[in-house]
Design goal:
CATH superfamily of one domain: Ribosomal protein L11/L12, C-terminal domain
Mean pLDDT: 87
Radius of gyration: 27 Å
Distance between the termini: 66 Å
Helix content: 55-70%
Structural class: mainly alpha
Strand order of the largest sheet: 1-2
Order of helices and strands: HHEEHEHHEHHHH
Number of helices: 9
């Protein structure tokens, strides 16, 4: 938390020490460095005393922390930004479960998988929607019932290798898309330039021809 107009506008009128509030908030959220964390500040307007409550970070923030990401995908479904193991998903689900409307860990896991879809994160080298289907089918019941949160080094290497291949494929696809777009723009500019260079009579004839073609 840093000093700024937003903080001043919200807390300034309450007459409390903003420097002290910011210091206390940063102290209480120090374990969540680099993450966005929801907090609640309860202020007693008479005594000017305040109480800070810290809530667990949103699921998307926990996913990004697990993968050391600064941000999620801007084009989820098209651009993937990471590859989680089911054990990591279970770990996130266990962390967030007290704040979730989930009847059990399996339900919490499916909620985390939903966030993986919108964040652009693969799970078990698959689209998280597909992994959710597998969870429904009971494929990961053993891991969930055992509350497994540790990923073996061998599995981690395989997940990382798959994601490197995915990144390479995405880069190639984006490059091809940009080249096609540049080609289309160049073609459009060339056609516009040729049209401009035509004598007025030819332009009129060209317009008449287009009208006739439409008829």
């Amino acid at each position: 938390m840093k000093p700024g107009p937003t903080v001043s506008q919200q807390l300034g009128p309450m007459g409390i020490n903003l420097g002290e509030v910011i210091e206390k908030v940063n102290e209480k959220t120090s374990n969540f460095k680099g993450m966005k964390v929801p907090i609640e500040i309860d202020v007693n307007s008479k005594t000017k005393e305040f109480k800070i409550s810290v809530f667990s970070p949103p699921v998307s923030e926990l996913i990004k922390k697990e993968l050391s990401l600064n941000k999620g995908s801007g084009e989820a479904g098209k651009i993937m930004v990471g590859n989680l193991a089911i054990e990591q998903v279970i770990s996130i689900a266990k962390t967030k479960m007290p704040n979730m409307l989930a009847k059990d860990l399996k339900a919490a896991v499916k909620l985390v998988l939903g966030s993986c879809v919108s964040t652009g994160v693969l799970v078990e080298s698959k689209n998280a929607t597909e992994t959710t289907t597998e969870v429904n089918e009971g494929k990961y019941d053993s891991e969930i019932s055992q509350e497994k949160t540790e990923v073996s080094p061998e599995k981690k290497l395989k997940l990382d290798a798959f994601f490197k291949e995915t990144e390479a494929e995405q880069a190639e696809a984006l490059k091809a898309e940009e080249e096609a777009k540049a080609e289309e723009e160049a073609k459009a500019e060339k056609e516009a330039s040729v049209e401009e260079e035509k004598p007025e009579e030819e332009k009129e004839e060209s317009e008449e021809k287009k009208k006739e073609e439409k008829k």
